[in-house]
Amino acid sequence: MRALGLDVGTKTIGMALSDELGWTAQGLDTIRRDEEQPGKDFEAISEIVKEYGVDTIVIGMPKNMNGTIGSSGERSQAFADELSKHVTCTIKMWDERLTTVAAERMLISADVSRKKRKKVIDKMAAVMILQGYLDHKGN
C-alpha cells in the first residue's frame, strides 16, 4: 500500500509519499499551481499515482480550531471532488490543523533559512498530514 499526502494551497500543492509498507512519509515534491490551467494539477497528481502505484490519497482538510469547516476546507473538499474524476484510488480527507505551523517550527529549529523554508514548507506540511494518517491507521 502506498499513500500520497497532499497539502493543497491556493498557489502550491505540497506532496509526500509513503513507503510501500505504509509506515513512513517522505517529502516528494511541490506543484506550482496554474490558475489558468487547473487541469495540470490533476494531471501531475495522476501521473504520480501511476508511477508509484498509489492506492490512497490523503488530502489535508483545514478546519477551524473549533472543528468547523471554513472556506479553506470547502476549497480542499472541492479539490478532492475534482481529483476523484482523474484517479481511481481512494481519497481521504485528514484534519490538518496546525500542520503548517508545526512544519515551520520544525524547520526553524533545524536552523533552515527563511528563503529555504519557503521552498519546502508545503512539502513538510504534506509529510505531517500523511504521517498523521499513517500513524492513526496503524493503531
TrEMBL record:
One of its GO terms (cellular component) is cytosol. GO terms for molecular function: hydrolase activity, acting on ester bonds; nuclease activity. SUPFAM superfamilies: Ribonuclease H-like. One of its GO terms (biological process) is rRNA 5'-end processing. The keyword Methyltransferase does not apply. InterPro entries: RNaseH-like_sf (IPR012337), YqgF (IPR005227), YqgF/RNaseH-like_dom (IPR006641), YqgF/RNaseH-like_dom_sf (IPR037027). Its main location: cytoplasm. Residues 1-103 form the YqgF/RNase H-like domain. Its EC number is 3.1.-.-. Gene3D superfamilies: YqgF/RNase H-like domain. The keyword Flavoprotein does not apply. Keywords: Cytoplasm, Hydrolase, Nuclease, Ribosome biogenesis. It is found in: Cytoplasm. It is an enzyme of class 3 (hydrolase). Belongs to the YqgF HJR family. Could be a nuclease involved in processing of the 5'-end of pre-16S rRNA. PANTHER family: POLYNUCLEOTIDYL TRANSFERASE, RIBONUCLEASE H-LIKE SUPERFAMILY PROTEIN. This is Putative pre-16S rRNA nuclease.
